[in-house]
Specification:
seven-stranded mixed β-sheet, alpha/beta, 11 helices, Rossmann fold, 283 residues, 36% helix
Length: 283
């Protein structure tokens, strides 16, 4: 796995600070399922931004927790031929690591100087260094956010802190606001966590926590072990529209690493990782 691990100078509640090294993974062709899943999430969120802006008939105010290298904005900037100011009118990114303000390659100037980041100005982007386990208050107005997302963040902090800042996010979301959260799907192995993880939420546990606040629109798997996939197809045949013949066709189309990402979509409860799309009630 291409990961960047950095020790935080201040880390009051022992959260983990790690990032998927997407740029290096591309150079090295290290396209394992977790890297592929990351990229697919960024693209999905970009597509959701465009669709939500079209539905509302205006650009969005958006919030990202654990913004890191801003891959969603990079993807939206480079991969989509849309006027960026028509999609996002204000972006607020929050991260525990001060590196987001000083050392990231904010192309096209590429010098890491956020004050001169032309492409960030396209999104009216504001970045904030903040440990949400210490201070959950977010630097945006209540009921002002159209779309909130957070990818691969909650597993890096102790679980007792997550509901606190989710409640704060809910205050910032406008009625009808959209939510996208992805995180590992706990399979009973919290005693054997990856080095980078503090706690992985169980499927039903996380569903209960998220639906306390928001209406669930969908949950999909983002990658899965192939033996687990085949077991799921045997034991839960009603959970999918696939047949084994169709799985073989997918194997004809995709290599094993991409197949693990594509096939996971239909089996969230069996997958290694899930993506949740929810919406704040309008009432």
């Amino acid at each position: 796995m291409a990961s960047i691990r950095k020790k935080l100078v201040v880390n009051t509640h022992d959260s983990k600070n790690t990032r998927m090294d997407i740029a290096s993974a591309g150079v090295l062709a290290n396209w394992r399922p977790d890297e592929i899943a990351h990229i697919s999430r960024y693209d999905k969120i970009s597509s959701l931004c465009i669709a939500e802006a079209e539905d509302l008939g205006r650009p969005l105010s958006v919030l990202e927790i654990g913004c890191g290298e801003l891959w969603v904005l990079r993807n939206l900037y480079k991969a989509y031929t849309v006027k960026k100011s028509d999609i996002i009118r204000r972006y607020c990114g929050v991260d525990i690591d001060p590196v987001i303000l000083t050392e990231l390659p904010y192309w096209p100037n590429g010098d890491g100087d956020i004050s001169d980041s032309i492409w960030l100005r396209n999104f009216n982007a504001h970045l904030h260094v903040q440990d949400l386990t210490v201070n959950s208050a977010l630097p945006v107005e209540d009921n002002s956010i159209d779309f909130f997302w957070s990818t691969e963040v909650i597993e890096h902090m102790k679980p007792e802190f997550v509901p606190v800042w989710l409640a704060e996010v809910n205050r910032k979301l406008r009625p009808g606001g959209l939510v996208y959260i992805s995180t590992p799907n706990h399979d009973g192995s919290n005693d054997k966590l990856p080095l980078d993880h503090v706690y992985e939420w169980g499927f039903e546990e996380l569903k209960t926590e998220l639906t306390k606040r928001w209406e669930l629109e969908s949950v999909v798997g983002t990658f899965i072990q192939l033996p687990k996939l085949r077991k799921a197809m045997r034991e839960d045949p009603e959970e999918t529209c696939w047949s084994h013949d169709q799985l073989e066709l997918l194997e004809e189309r995709y290599g094993r690493q991409f197949l693990r990402v594509v096939a996971a979509t239909f089996f969230p409860q069996w997958s290694n990782n899930c993506a949740w799309i929810l919406r704040k009630n309008v009432y």
